[in-house]
Recover the amino acids of this structure.
């Protein structure tokens, strides 16, 4: 995959998800658009060049992506004077654990679609 | 299509990132007025949300009629008794009020006034989708004169929160338990002043805290806490909640009180936005 293809595939997808998050969530002010785009490209790079493209790789990517987003959120709150670090870490931890449960059905769904699309399909 | 993206994908990506940055800057500068992207999405989805909520509310009412009749009857009896007790208290209150007015006239003080000139009713159409904030989305916006920092109450005049973001036909209310909430408060029984603050840990339990307690304050469980109205942004005397318990903070020196909101945030359907008020104490 060329760099351009990579950017288009992961960057645009991440951007679209980020734009949706910014439109629906309160108080994000455009940060999710850029943030999810960057996380998307980073996850794509990991999946493309480092990790195996299986369930374990998917779990690891998801874990890193969720941890990165919550990590930035916690750092931003610390910067603005919110010092409840224990509460923030506890909330982030619970959020990440519950979100990882959804990796299984999503992975299964994508795998099911992937196996049914002929290799030579061009969109 | 693949060739189109291959040729122009980089430009599309750059344009989209620039759009996101502009949105972020505009959103920060507008200070509470919704950015164009959020406004468009919420404007388009508000009618659907209103429709879904109408169907859900109708279904809930049918369910209550069918399966909760006995419970409602018992609750009705308890409320009748409570109304009788409150009517008696109101008679005592009226006598005290008249005496107060007579004394104010004798002392030639300016008459007390408490009027909420513009009240806008709104339906709750969505609740916060994030665990990091406690917000409600309402069905009214700038087209109906709603502005940032307008106070929001429920039908019993209990504090719900403050308008934080306004769109054309929707607005977002930061509830009183949100971790960014901060306002002046008064303890009804003692008259002491304190600060009502949201707390991330307590927000998960549906509560908030009262900090900067007056020295030697002897708070009791059940003490009502109201808004103080200092600064003139929020009306005074709006009930926020009651004291549940007093705890020592992490430093071991200071104390704070855990406040349970008087309003039922999880089951709110209709609220009232105070667009303008006049209070003379």
């Amino acid at each position: 995959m060329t760099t351009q293809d990579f950017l288009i595939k992961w960057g645009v997808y991440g951007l679209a998800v980020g734009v949706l998050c910014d439109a629906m969530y309160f108080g994000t002010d455009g940060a999710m658009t850029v943030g999810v785009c960057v996380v998307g490209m980073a996850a794509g790079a990991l999946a493309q060049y480092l990790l195996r493209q299986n369930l374990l790789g998917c779990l690891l990517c998801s874990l890193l992506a969720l941890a990165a987003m919550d990590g930035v959120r916690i750092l931003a709150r610390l910067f603005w004077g919110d010092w409840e670090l224990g509460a923030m870490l506890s909330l982030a931890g619970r959020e990440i654990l519950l979100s990882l449960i959804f990796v299984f059905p999503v992975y299964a769904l994508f795998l099911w679609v992937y196996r049914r699309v002929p290799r030579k399909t061009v969109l | 299509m693949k060739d189109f993206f291959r040729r122009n994908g980089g430009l599309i990506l750059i344009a989209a990132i620039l759009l996101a940055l502009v949105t972020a800057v505009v959103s920060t500068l507008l200070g509470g007025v919704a950015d164009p992207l959020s406004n468009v999405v919420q404007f388009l989805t508000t009618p659907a949300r209103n429709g879904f909520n109408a169907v859900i509310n109708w279904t809930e009412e049918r369910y209550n009629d069918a399966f909760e009749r006995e419970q409602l009857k018992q609750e009705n009896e308890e409320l009748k008794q409570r109304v009788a007790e409150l009517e008696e208290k109101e008679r005592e209150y009226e006598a005290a009020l008249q005496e107060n007015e007579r004394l104010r006239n004798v002392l030639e003080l300016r008459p007390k006034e408490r009027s909420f000139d513009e009240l806008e009713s709104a339906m709750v159409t969505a609740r916060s989708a994030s665990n990091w904030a406690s917000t409600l989305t309402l069905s009214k916006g700038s087209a109906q004169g709603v502005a940032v920092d307008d106070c929001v109450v429920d039908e019993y005049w209990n504090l719900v929160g403050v308008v934080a973001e306004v769109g054309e036909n929707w607005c977002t209310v930061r509830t009183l338990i949100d971790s960014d909430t901060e306002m002046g408060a008064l303890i009804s029984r003692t008259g002491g002043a304190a600060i009502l603050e949201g707390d991330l840990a307590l927000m998960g339990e549906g509560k908030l805290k009262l900090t900067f307690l007056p020295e030697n304050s002897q708070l009791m469980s059940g003490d009502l806490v109201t808004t103080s109205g200092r600064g003139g942004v929020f009306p005074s005397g709006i009930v926020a909640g009651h004291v549940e318990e007093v705890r020592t903070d992490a430093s071991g020196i200071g104390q704070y009180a855990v406040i349970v909101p008087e309003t039922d945030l999880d089951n709110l359907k209709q609220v009232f936005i105070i667009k303008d008020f006049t209070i003379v104490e």
